[in-house]
Amino acid sequence: QVQLVESGGGVVQPGRSLRLSCAASGFAFSSYPINWVRQAPGKGLAWVASISNDGSNKYYADSVKGRFTISRDNSKNTLYLQLNGLRAEDTAVYYCAGGLHHFTNYVFDYWGRGTLVTVSS
Amino acid sequence: EIVLTQSPGTLSLFPGERATLSCRASQSVSSNYLGWYQQKPGQAPRLLIYGASNRAPGIPDRFRGGGSGTDFTLTISRLEPEDFAVYYCQQYGSSPLYTFGQGTKLEIK
């Protein structure tokens, strides 16, 4: 059974840093690209970052480029998101999500439950 | 950058009625790259449709996706109580890599 479990969220002051983790199980983690998607309170979904299966290619939304870093440790089946220079507008639930079937390369058919990041002084 | 615009913002219908949700892209999108999601309060999104018209595993056949180019639709043929939720379209592109529409809230009338 596929599971994606995010952790690491919390309340943080503006300008500070946080690292999110997503523990994956039930599938061949190292075979798939994987992504972070966020949702501000009461708002829609927004893609944040993606990483290729081997970690060699990384992609970011313009809103987080230069501040957030996506990475993965395939030996630990874990995805990370390092959030630096946090701003109030980064407040959101952060989801780990992936397309884990051969026919879902361009969509996200598995999602974690999310972890809430609140940026506030 | 491709922008996805969903309409209407809110759709109020009775159970048993037919719902038609629209997703319009600012530039042509390959049908292979278009998906639809359902999200209920406090839950993660759930994939309904991939490749514009293919139902994800376990999705009832009352959900149907269609369209091409810049205009895509999600149709729910006979609304069940559990279908009232927020629906998002999403596309895969070049920059940004993924884009979501702003969502359509389907509410019980």
Characterization of this structure:
The complex is a heterodimer of chains A (121) and B (109). By secondary structure, chain A is mainly beta. Chain A has strands at 3-7, 10-12, 18-25, 34-39, 45-51, 58-60, 68-73, 78-83, 92-98, 110-111, 115-119. Chain A starts with a strand and ends with a strand. Chain B is mainly β. Chain B contains no helices and ten strands. Chain B has strands at 4-7, 10-13, 19-29, 34-39, 46-50, 54-55, 63-76, 86-92, 98-100, 104-108. In chain B, strands 2, 4, 5, 6, 8, 9 and 10 form a seven-stranded mixed beta sheet that branches. Chain B starts with a strand and ends with a strand. Chains A and B meet through strand 5 of A and strand 4, strand 5, strand 8 and strand 9 of B.
Quick summary:
The complex is a heterodimer of chains A (121) and B (109). Chain A is mainly β and 121 residues long.
List keywords for this structure.
heterodimer, A: 121 residues, mainly beta, four-stranded antiparallel beta sheet, 0% helix, 48% strand, globular, B: 109 residues, seven-stranded mixed beta sheet, three-stranded antiparallel beta sheet, 10 strands
DSSP summary: helix tally of chain A: 0
Strand content of chain A: over 45%
Unreliable runs of chain A: none
Looking at how many chains there are and whether they match, the oligomeric state comes to heterodimer
The first-to-last residue Cα distance of chain A is: 40 Å
Number of strands of chain B: 10
Shape of chain A: globular
Show unreliable segments of chain B: none
Largest protein-protein interface: A-B, 22 and 24 residues
